[in-house]
Amino acid sequence: MMKGIIMAVREVMRKDRLKTLTSLKIKVGELGAEETRALEFAFEVCLKEARMKPARLDIIKAPITAICSGCGKKLRVSGFHHECPSCGSNGIKDLSSAEMEIISMEAEP
Ligand SMILES: [Zn+2]
Asked: Which of 27, 69, 82, 83 is surrounded by the most beta carbons within 10 Å?
């Protein structure tokens, strides 16, 4: 997950001839404290692997997006309330783990 983000960042930096990443803002689904820490750790490891200097990571927690297997509707769910408001099905599939995107990044030449 984080590897893909770093690869995208490096691609942008290569194009713009930037060398040092200073900060990165990403959007993820609602994460627990443990998952947030794991993400920050993965970020540091990926930077090290890419021989990049440590940078600041801002994690924006977005509402969880889910899809209903009953009616196929896309939903925003909060907490553990996993019941489709339009058909009542509880077969809601959590999509948030697949959602991770870059909001902004700062880098220097
Ligand atoms: Zn439904």
From this structure: 82
